[in-house]
Amino acid sequence: MAYLALYRALRPQTFAEVVGQEQTVTALQNAIKDDRLTHAYIFSGPRGTGKTSIAKIMAKAVNCENPVQGEPCNQCSACMDINNGNFMDVIEIDAASNRGIDEIRDLRERVRVMPAQGKKKVYIIDEVHMLTTEAFNALLKTLEEPPESVIFILATTEPQKIPSTIISRCQRYNFRRLQPQQIILRLREAAHSNGIELDDDSLALIARRANGGMRDALGMLDQLYSFKDHDIKREDVLEVLGLVDDLFVSRLLDAVLAQDPGTMVDMLNTALNEGKEAGQLIRETSLYLRDLLLYKLVGERAEFLFVGAANRENLQKQAQRADKHKILQSLRIAMEAGEKLKFSEGQRFLLELTYLEMMALFAQEEAKPAEISEGKKKPTAADKEKIGRNDAREILWNRILAGVKEKKIPTHALLSQGKLLGTKGDTMYIGYQKGYGFHKERMEEKANREILEQVIKEVFNRDMEIIFVFLDDQQVNDMVVKKAIEYFGEDIVQIKD
Ligand SMILES: Nc1ncnc2c1ncn2[C@@H]1O[C@H](COP(=O)(O)OP(=O)(O)OP(=O)(O)O)[C@@H](O)[C@H]1O
Ligand SMILES: [Mg+2]
Ligand SMILES: [Zn+2]
Question: Which residues are in the AAA+ ATPase domain (predicted)?
Fold first, then answer.
């Protein structure tokens, strides 16, 4: 079946056609109408939210022969040439390419040349954060002495990477993620005008997964279309786009609440082996927990962002079972993990640890109130989190020990005197007290080490280097342990006994 390239075909051609970004659109359109444009703009915001589209609309509006209320007519030769990419005075530079950098280098001379074809030269510099220092300097010099009749529009998804010297010379507009509802409306139109038939559930699913990006949403519709153009259902969307089903997340959470690590780990393995990404799973889990929390708090009034109709009943059951503070805490754990995953190699490991932490959190039950009434200090949120992390480590350590025991009991005896400290990248740190030098040395021997490596490989599905350390070695405490807190919390530093 054909490929529609909807996102290109459906690029908004006027300010009126832009979805969302209301403040930006109004401000720019008014400035054009009143002839108040400045010479440099930064458009920053997530991918596929309209930065390049609006830059092009501006380029047309300032060069259009018959503009109306700041809008381009899209019919004069200037508008049409710009739409076709044939207009000499609208120059698009991709800062991420080598050519882009060369173009910036001789920008200073080139901008002095008056517009050849239109009223204003418009430079659209995409992905501007990718420029080299040298290119930034060249750009800065140009912005410092702005020539007449030139407008720069710098677009970026990562404004924090742009030198402040540049930012301060530009007017800045922040583009926002689009609301699911805005995306749904646009998708429905796009589907309708291309004869694609899909149900509301599918639309909602795509809109949610696009995470506020219209290009991604339209791209997904394209992908679906190339697979099937009619009677598209939720299952088709999940299959074609390789998404995690909310039913899956729901069952995963069932395993967490039921304190069933075996099922949980199996489910994670299955998902990862099917090619799902750890980051995706964590994101979906966050969305699920968000829906669960909201339902717990406001009941039927909750507007679900992720959980589909078929899954509401199970969510309701979970809401009855789970404590709201713990759901909130789990949501925090998931969101934190999402951040860490961006920088981590040990995806599977971190994923498992995240769910184990949640499991540990839901395990600390009713005993607490009694303790508190006996005059003990009420545990703070930070204390609770520490407990969560410690329990997660314990669950993990027990799994490793059990795996080793199955393979060789004497190795298990040696290992069980140690303590899992934490991991850093592909390295796992295991600590022994000073008096256990014998155990440590034996574990360092090839035969025992190999058994442990094998178990770890089975548990995490990847190779890890193991380093055995003495717990009360000051240097270890300072160096190794401080690094190892990455996954297990600061409490580890205090392990002495
Ligand atoms: N606000 C919007 N309204 C309508 N369509 C949009 C909007 N934003 C994006 N789109 C759709 O997505 C496509 C890509 O948008 P655009 O190139 O403007 O995004 P961008 O913000 O420049 O993204 P990137 O940062 O990836 O360059 C457009 O052709 C259009 O189909
Ligand atoms: Mg762009
Ligand atoms: Zn025109």
Answer: 37-188
